[in-house]
Amino acid sequence: ILKDIDFQATEGEFIYLIGRVGSGKSSLLKTFYGELDIDQEDAEKAEVLGESVLDIKQKRIPALRRQMGIIFQDFQLLHDRSVAKNLKFVLQATGWKDKEKIKQRIREVLEQVGMIDKAAKMPSELSGGEQQRIAIARAFLNNPKIILADEPTGNLDPETASNIVSILKDTCKNGTTVIMSTHNINLLSQFPGKVYRCMEQALVPVTDEAQTKDLEEDSTSVEPLIEPVLEEEAQAEDSKE
User: Fold this and answer.
1) What is the pTM of this model?
2) Which of 86, 40, 72 has its CA nearest to residue 180?
3) Neighbours of 16 (CB within 10 A)
4) Helical ranges in 68-212 per DSSP H
5) Cα separation of 118 and 72, whole Å?
6) Alpha carbon 114 to chain centroid distance?
7) How many CB atoms are closer than 10 A to CB 124?
8) Coil, strand or helix: which one is 16?
9) pLDDT over 90 for what percent of the chain?
10) Residues 8-37: pLDDT tens digits?
């Protein structure tokens, strides 16, 4: 989808990826954690955390991902176990064995996202915003060097979205790099960071305020999508009468 990418992230940066649906934001994030391959014929260099992802061996990908935290729009929590057991599962899968250290780390990340009182809850008992906080806590577990967040506020109301981004922005103070795709253009002024726009198969840096004037075209609001549907349903009901 994207070609001739020139992209670099440094320690502690907060970076937005914006663009229309299908413009390549998610695909770019997937190349960072080895989910999608990069065309080796066209690419000169592609490194993530010092590891070349152009020719990375499949067996090296888990080690690379352990240095990252990945946050999905749909949370991807395990619904057959509690919040604490969701986090415990990840720690054990990444090599943690000491039971007390596991408990302590779970407490630390839940406190970090303000969810310590939800440890015993099942995901189905939590709101969307609460589930996303747990997904962020999961991403924090192994003190990642990079956090990749794919539309983490896409299904959330504005206030909850702001709270989520505030948590992510705060982690940059510890040297963690956050790369986040979003359609919520309002976040760019509320939580400033470096901005890249995916458009016409290219990744374009947004370098000044003047360039943000047309970014609203790329933002996806739910209401414009819903209104025609509601109007159509209303017309259908009227015709029945």
Assistant:
1) 0.83
2) 72
3) 24
4) 83-93, 99-112, 128-140, 158-171, 186-190
5) 20
6) 19
7) 8
8) strand
9) 62
10) 999 999 999 999 888 889 999 999 998 888
Q: Evaluate whether 118 touches 87 at the Cβ level (below 8 Å).
A: no
Q: Name the more confident of 192 and 218.
A: 192
Q: pLDDT tens, 76-130? A: 999 999 999 999 999 999 999 999 999 999 999 999 999 999 999 999 999 999 9
The structure tokens listed for 99 are 């039971």
Q: Which two tokens stand for residue 170?
A: 């705060």
121's tokens: 């809850």
CA atoms lying within 13 Å on the CB side of residue 7? 27
Q: Would you tell me which CATH number, out of the four given (3.30.1130.10, 3.40.50.2300, 3.40.50.970, 3.40.50.300), belongs to the domain 14-240?
A: 3.40.50.300
Cα–Cα distance for residue pair 233/211, rounded to 1 Å: 39
Provide the β-strand partners of residue 178: 14, 147
Mean pLDDT of the chain: 86
CB-based contact 92:102 (threshold 8 Å): yes
| Other Cβ atoms closer than 10 A to 196 | 23
The residue written with tokens 């067996």 in the block is 59
- Looking only at the bridges linking them, the beta strands covering 177-181 and 146-150 are parallel
Contact call for residues 194 and 13 (beta carbons, < 8 A)? yes
User: How is residue 213 written in tokens?
Assistant: 């004037």
Cα angle value 75/66/135 (rounded, 5°): 15
- Of residues 134, 119, 140, the one with CA closest to residue 74: 134
Helix (H) or strand (E) holding 3: none
Q: Hey, where are the domains in the chain?
A: 14-240
